[in-house]
């Protein structure tokens, strides 16, 4: 049976996820486990419940509603995740939206209807839909159907992927409907990759090379992107290795994504402790000088970022 | 013309004296009223003694026509405090109690507020008035005079108080930007200096190689730079010239009756006075001028119209010099002339007082004077139109006079009224010619004295131009610009300087431009000609800054920074429906970019099927550079909207924005487009309170049920109550507008305006008498988004989901949600608002605008025309917001409504939802246009070109979706914060309020905060 993703969010009017004005569909669930993950709520495939302390008006309606008695002000995270069955009853009763469901099931038609509302803006700006995550290729069949539906409606498509997928499936089901692919190349050293991203990168690099070869005939454009994370991906050795890798495959344009720690709050909302957060990714902002230095490394290799 | 009044007004008119049934007095009979009576009496006695005993004060009691006699009553609403002061034949007496007939009375909500009044400045007294802590009864001019007397007595202490307040406000403003972001201060020049190029794609553009004209900067035009600097650095100065000359003439020739004691024919009286005014005005030419003609004897003149709202400045003649916002200069001589000679003559001769006198202060007028439900612009003027400049361009005044004479000769059956009207038109044109001749002579005299040969030549040329025009049609751009300006000056000498547009200048000037440039043979000549045209248009723009509306301080707060609203409209289609964009369109855009002025108010029409994207992109570019102008209009939607009235299609296609954004069919349409400003929210508050208006403290509307009643079993029943209250206010607003209109017919028929409005000559009736080819009245309705959202809350939570009762909601509102955090969270997060992408909310908004439109169009105005409805707010959203309690939508008491019909900032996180929802409103109901204000911030990493492309994408898509109008503030909120804290760096910062532009640093603090709080969208 084909797996159906939870949709984390559909965000209109995005200007940072490809050319023009774009609508971004976020899938929930990712095969990687990057320490710095910007969308921590998109890692797990299943539904979650988030609690936003800032929005809470302390009316305590939810406490009486919870069948498991999992909610308590004594608990610094408010929700006892062990007890919580994610039934969502508390969310229904919350007046302020402090409690919310993360992830909802949507059909392809529902998503399409939501996205094509923005078509006039795609047309005037050269934008379209961006499918992101999580990892959209985790749900290859659904993704294929969604992209097909988009193309049928005349919407240009872009997929943001971590590159961890079965190539054959991707080639058959995704490439025919993809106008652009944003492909993350994070770390070249396999051991480091396993350490920071939870899996080895061999499959990822193989897939990238394969897509690069397909690009000439496949009707899509490929843009590799590297997140610049302080003390992890921004090390000179790593960046030089990435740049070398690009040069070998005749890449002349790539993107860098300077890291910011804004995801911390999102993590807390789904119940991760601050200590865990700091332990994994660090909370440093990327310095502007560092970004310039990183870009310089790519430029030396003849790669525009 | 008979004016039908609504039943409610008729009914209440009969017992006008006792209709005030203030039911709920917020303060129980306070102990110590006797004590307060005593204090008030003692203070009034003290005042009287001062005026009786000190000759320096006593001299102010006298006017040219003798002692100024009037009585002022001061009382509390419950009548427990009642005192009066009596000015009679040079003596002043304080009286215990109130004489039966006072000219004017101050009525305080509570006795204690009387004590407070005695310690405040005149402007604060006006604020108390606006906030309904007191209201007036009777003649407002005398109330202003009383304020003037108070200011004479207490001026020094009031000045100290104002100075202290200014200091305090400064400190508050500084708090806005604890860490000043100086980086924003260079943003303006960065945008001005990185100019982009365009392509010549519009068929009408024949002579501009690059229509974006990126080669020119302001520094290339030293004259414009100089004039621009003067416009920003000059303090406006009140000048007595116009009111004094008019008063002189009327004192000699009579106002109501002529010297023989015969009742004056209004047209002939006004024409005689106008001609005298124009013949005797001082011809003023400033050293940098290429175009002649002024509104007064000072560089920037706030023009005084004593028959309209001119007397509102009476109380502030001294204190206006030291006020915080937009202070005026005024000579002592002018104060004496205005106080002794001019104002007493007009104290009972102005539109308000004529209505009060003839209709016994009707209910519809009292509502207006409580200031919280509607405001009728006719108390200020009705010049918001676009006259037929084409007529003078085709014929010159000489040709027009000949046409009028021919009409007189042709129409043998003309009635007396027509004969008088046409004769008055000719006299008015003679006045116009006389003024032009005086200016020409003056230019010649100045040239004779001039040492600098360059300036001498300019003055001689000016003299020559004014010899030929306006008597003959203009043949060069130089002459055209002179005719445009002169026509506008004289029309504003006759009528108020409020909302009188320049029209479609690109259409008017292009034929002359083409003729002139075709005669040139080399590229150098053509380049130099284009440069000259830019300079001339720039001079016209800057000339338009030579006058302001004369605002008492309260207007600075209510109509924050609003200029005279001199619209210029460009682009769109021709009357034949073809692409109208031409060379002059781009030249006007260039001038708009170079000068970045709030007025003239530039409006760009965009016809998606006829105009090029290149043209729209240039409008976006100018918007980006100036931050706030031009505003963008969807030609297709506007034409569709106007088509419902049966106007000829070629006339509709010739529409021009007026005042703020409202459409006028150029030269043939008396649209009084901003006549009525009404708060939809006032009706909602009345529906929630069974007809009672909480801030006014007034049992005003029909009893439609209390929130505890069982009668509200369904949402529709509540909606009915709302509509009943709203309809009640609408009807009264129409009544008052019509009564004021009748007074215009009697006292200010506007002969010259009628020369410039087609239909008037043939009908032999002036514009206010229905002479125009098309007649309508504009009503703009404020608070649409707030009311829609509130009704959505009631519908969803009370009726659909039954989550709370009306009564609970009402209790929460009355407590400003202070005890109901959960309920407040619920209404603000769980109900789909207008702008969120919810069809249900859009339906609700459409339901409201349809009701509005149906109700207004069901009524006929005093000229036999219909009504147009609009949803833009000028600054009424902030002003009315201050006067409104908490709303079901969760908006807290006193907070601003959203500007125009802009969705509430939290309605959606996506600007696209806002845009889509606004575009879904039924254009039929928007025939007086809308203001959709969006604040966008280009990303710091975007280049000029990228930023412009982004803005283009949004506006182009908005028009594809059918949206009618859009106005963008293109600047980060932090820039406004820095400007609040450091105004000295932001003298030029232009912002879009709602329909019009203002300079940010000239706004009052609430208006500044409202702009800051608007949703900001990164682009």
What's the SSE blueprint?
The complex is a heterodimer of chains A (305) and B (1019).
Chain A (H helix, E strand, L loop, with lengths): L5 E9 L7 E6 L20 E4 L9 H5 L23 H5 L5 E4 L1 E2 L2 H9 L2 H7 L2 E5 L7 H13 L4 E5 L5 H8 L5 E5 L5 H8 L4 H17 L2 E8 L7 H13 L6 E4 L4 H7 L4 H8 L6 H13 L5
Chain B lengths: L6 H8 L18 H21 L1 H4 L3 E2 L2 E2 L2 E7 L5 E7 L2 E6 L7 E5 L2 H7 L4 H9 L3 E5 L1 H37 L10 H7 L28 H12 L7 H13 L12 H15 L20 E3 L28 H15 L4 H9 L3 H8 L3 E3 L12 H22 L5 H34 L3 H16 L8 H18 L10 H14 L4 H21 L3 E3 L3 H6 L8 E5 L11 H13 L5 E6 L6 H14 L4 E4 H8 L6 H4 L2 E4 L3 E4 L3 E2 L5 E4 H9 L3 E2 L4 E2 L15 H33 L3 H5 L4 H4 L10 E9 L1 H17 L5 H9 L6 H9 L9 H19 L8 E5 L5 H7 L28 H9 L13 E5 L6 H17 L4 E6 L2 H9 L8 E3 L4 E3 L5 H9 L2 E3 L1
Helix pairs in contact in B: 2-4, 6-36, 8-19, 9-10, 9-11, 10-15, 12-26, 13-26, 14-15, 15-16, 17-19, 18-21, 19-21, 21-22, 22-35, 25-26, 26-32, 29-32, 36-37
Would you mind describing this structure in some detail?
The complex is a heterodimer of chains A (305) and B (1019). Chain A is of the alpha/beta class. In chain A, 37% of the residues lie in helices and 17% in strands. Chain A contains twelve helices and ten strands. Chain A has helices at residues 61-65, 89-93, 108-116, 119-125, 140-152, 167-174, 190-197, 202-218, 236-248, 263-269, 274-281, 288-300; strands at residues 6-14, 22-27, 48-51, 99-102, 104-105, 128-132, 157-161, 180-184, 221-228, 255-258. In chain A, the strands form two sheets. Chain A has an eight-stranded mixed beta sheet. A two-stranded antiparallel sheet of chain A has the order 3-4. The longest helix of chain A is centred in the last third of the chain and has 17 residues, at 202-218. Chain A is globular and about 60 Å long. The termini of chain A are far apart. Chain B is of the alpha/beta class and 1019 residues long. Chain B has a six-stranded mixed beta sheet with strand order 11-12-13-23-22-26. In chain B, strands 5-4-3-6-7 form a five-stranded mixed beta sheet. In chain B, strands 9, 16, 17, 20 and 21 form a five-stranded mixed beta sheet that branches. In chain B, strand 4 (82-88) and strand 5 (91-96) form a beta hairpin. Chain B starts with 6 loop residues before the first helix and ends with a strand. Chains A and B meet through strand 1 and helix 4 of A and helix 31, helix 34 and helix 35 of B.
């Amino acid at each position: 049976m084909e797996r159906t993703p939870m949709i984390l969010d559909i965000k209109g009017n995005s200007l940072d996820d490809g050319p023009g004005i774009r609508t971004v569909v976020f899938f929930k669930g990712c095969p990687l486990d990057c320490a710095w993950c910007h969308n921590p709520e998109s890692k797990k495939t299943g539904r979650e419940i988030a609690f936003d302390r800032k929005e809470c008006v302390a009316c305590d309606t939810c406490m009486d509603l919870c069948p498991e008695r999992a909610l308590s002000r004594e608990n610094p995270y408010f929700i006892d995740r062990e007890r919580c069955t994610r039934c969502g009853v508390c969310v229904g009763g919350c007046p302020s939206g402090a409690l919310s469901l993360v992830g909802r099931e949507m059909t392809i038609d529902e998503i399409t209807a939501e996205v094509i509302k923005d078509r006039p803006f795609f047309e005037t700006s050269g934008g379209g839909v961006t499918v992101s995550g999580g990892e959209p290729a985790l749900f290859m069949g659904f993704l294929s159907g969604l992209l097909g539906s988009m193309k049928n409606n005349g919407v240009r498509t872009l997929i943001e992927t971590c590159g961890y997928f079965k190539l054959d499936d991707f080639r058959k089901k995704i490439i025919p409907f993809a106008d652009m692919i944003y492909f993350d190349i994070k770390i070249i050293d396999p051991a480091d990759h396993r350490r920071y991203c939870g899996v080895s990168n061999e499959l990822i690099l193989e897939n990238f090379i394969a897509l690069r070869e397909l690009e000439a005939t496949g009707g899509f454009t490929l843009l590799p992107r590297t997140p610049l994370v302080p003390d992890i991906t921004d090390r000179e050795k790593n960046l030089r290795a990435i740049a070398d890798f690009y040069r070998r495959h005749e890449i002349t344009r790539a993107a860098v994504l300077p890291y910011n720690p804004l995801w911390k709050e999102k993590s807390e909302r789904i119940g991760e402790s601050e200590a865990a957060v700091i332990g994994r990714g660090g909370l440093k902002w990327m310095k502007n000088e560092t970004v310039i230095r990183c870009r310089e490394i790519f430029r030396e290799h003849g790669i525009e970022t | 013309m008979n004016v039908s009044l609504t039943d409610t007004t008729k009914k209440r008119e009969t017992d006008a004296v006792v209709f005030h049934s203030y039911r709920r007095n917020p303060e129980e009979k306070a102990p110590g009223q006797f004590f307060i009576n005593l204090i008030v009496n003692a203070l009034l006695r003290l005042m009287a003694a001062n005026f009786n005993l000190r000759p320096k004060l006593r001299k102010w009691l006298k006017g040219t026509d003798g002692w100024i006699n009037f009585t002022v009553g001061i009382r509390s609403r419950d009548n427990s405090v009642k005192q009066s002061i009596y000015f009679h034949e040079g003596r002043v007496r304080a009286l215990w109690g109130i004489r039966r007939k006072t000219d004017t009375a101050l009525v305080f909500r509570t006795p204690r507020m009387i004590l407070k009044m005695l310690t405040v400045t005149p402007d604060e007294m006006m604020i108390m008035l606006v906030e309904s802590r007191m209201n007036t009864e009777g003649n407002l001019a005398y109330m202003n005079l009383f304020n003037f007397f108070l200011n004479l007595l207490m001026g020094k202490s009031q000045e100290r108080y104002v100075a202290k307040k200014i200091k305090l406000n400064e400190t508050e403003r500084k708090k806005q930007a604890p860490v000043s972001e100086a980086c924003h201060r260079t943003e303006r020049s960065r945008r001005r200096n990185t100019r982009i190029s365009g392509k010549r794609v519009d068929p009408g553009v024949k002579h501009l190689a690059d229509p974006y004209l990126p080669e020119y900067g302001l520094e290339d035009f030293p004259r414009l730079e100089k004039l621009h600097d003067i416009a920003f650095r000059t303090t406006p100065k009140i000048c007595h010239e116009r009111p004094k000359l008019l008063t002189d003439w009327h004192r000699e020739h009579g106002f109501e009756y002529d010297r023989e004691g015969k009742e004056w024919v209004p047209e002939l009286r006004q024409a005689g006075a106008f001609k005298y005014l124009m013949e005797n005005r001082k011809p003023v030419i400033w050293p940098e001028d290429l175009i002649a003609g002024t509104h007064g004897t000072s560089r920037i003149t706030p023009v005084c119209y004593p028959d309209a709202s001119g007397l509102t400045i009476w109380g502030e003649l001294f204190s206006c010099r030291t006020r915080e916002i937009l202070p005026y200069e005024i000579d002592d001589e002018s104060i004496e002339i205005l106080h002794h000679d001019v104002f007493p003559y007009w104290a009972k001769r102005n539109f308000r007082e004529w209505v009060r006198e003839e209709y016994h202060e009707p209910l519809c007028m009292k509502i207006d004077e409580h200031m919280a439900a509607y405001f009728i612009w006719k108390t200020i003027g009705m010049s918001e139109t676009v006259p037929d400049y084409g007529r003078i361009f085709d014929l010159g005044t000489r040709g027009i006079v000949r046409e009028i004479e021919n009409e007189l000769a042709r129409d043998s059956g003309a009635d007396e009224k027509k004969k008088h009207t046409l004769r008055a038109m000719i006299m008015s044109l003679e006045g116009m010619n006389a003024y032009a001749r005086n200016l020409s002579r003056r230019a010649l005299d100045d040239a004779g004295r001039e040492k600098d040969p360059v300036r001498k030549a300019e003055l001689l040329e000016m003299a020559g131009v004014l010899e030929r025009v306006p008597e003959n049609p203009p043949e060069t751009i130089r002459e055209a610009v002179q005719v445009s300006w002169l026509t506008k000056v004289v029309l504003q000498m006759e009528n108020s300087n409020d909302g009188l547009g320049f029209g479609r200048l690109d259409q008017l000037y292009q034929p002359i431009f083409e003729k002139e440039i075709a005669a040139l043979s080399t590229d150098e000549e053509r380049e130099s000609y284009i440069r000259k045209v830019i300079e001339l248009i720039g001079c016209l723009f800057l000339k338009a800054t030579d006058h302001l509306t004369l605002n008492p301080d309260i207007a600075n707060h209510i109509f924050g920074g609003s200029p005279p609203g001199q619209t210029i409209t460009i682009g769109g289609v021709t009357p034949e429906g073809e692409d109208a964009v031409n060379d002059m369109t781009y030249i006007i855009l260039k001038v708009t970019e170079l000068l970045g002025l709030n007025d003239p108010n530039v409006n760009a029409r965009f016809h998606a099927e006829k105009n090029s994207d290149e043209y729209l992109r240039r409008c976006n570019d100018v918007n980006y550079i100036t931050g706030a102008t031009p505003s963008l209009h969807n030609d297709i939607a506007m034409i569709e909207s106007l088509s419902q009235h049966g106007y000829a299609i070629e006339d509709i296609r010739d529409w021009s924005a007026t005042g703020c954004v409202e459409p006028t069919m150029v030269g043939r349409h008396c649209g009084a487009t901003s006549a009525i400003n009404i708060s939809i929210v006032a009706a909602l508050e009345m529906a929630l309170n069974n007809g009672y208006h909480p801030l006014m403290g007034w049992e005003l509307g029909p009893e439609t049920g209390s929130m505890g009643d069982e009668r509200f079993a369904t949402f529709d029943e509540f909606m009915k109550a709302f509509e009943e209250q709203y309809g009640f206010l609408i009807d009264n607003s129409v009544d008052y507008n019509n009564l004021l209109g009748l007074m215009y017919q009697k006292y200010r028929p506007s002969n010259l305006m009628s020369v410039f409005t087609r239909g008037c000559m043939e009908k032999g009736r002036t514009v206010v008498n229905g002479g125009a080819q098309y007649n309508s009245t504009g009503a703009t309705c404020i608070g649409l988004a707030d009311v829609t959202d509130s009704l959505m809350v009631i519908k969803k939570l009370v009726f659909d989901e039954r989550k709370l009762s009306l009564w609970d909601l009402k209790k929460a509102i009355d407590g400003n949600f202070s005890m109901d955090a959960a309920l407040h969270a619920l209404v603000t997060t769980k109900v789909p608002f207008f702008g969120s992408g919810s069809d249900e909310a859009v339906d609700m908004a459409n339901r409201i605008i349809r009701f509005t439109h149906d109700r207004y169009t069901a009524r006929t105005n005093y000229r036999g025309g219909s009504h147009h409805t609009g949803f833009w707010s000028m600054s009424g959203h902030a002003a009315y917001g201050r006067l409104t309690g908490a709303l079901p939508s969760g908006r807290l008491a006193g907070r601003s409504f959203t500007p125009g019909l802009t969705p509430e900032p939290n309605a959606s996180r996506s600007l696209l939802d806002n845009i889509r929802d606004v575009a879904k409103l039924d254009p039929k109901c928007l025939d007086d246009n809308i203001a959709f204000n969006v604040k966008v911030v280009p990303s710091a990493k975007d280049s000029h070109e990228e930023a412009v492309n982004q803005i283009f994408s949004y506006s182009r898509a908005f028009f594809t979706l059918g949206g009618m109008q859009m106005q963008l503030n293109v600047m980060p909120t932090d820039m406004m914060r820095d400007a609040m804290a450091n105004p000295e760096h932001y003298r030029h910062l232009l912002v879009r309020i709602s329909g019009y532009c203002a300079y940010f640093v000239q706004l009052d603090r609430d208006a500044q905060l409202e702009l800051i709080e608007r949703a900001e969208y990164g682009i």
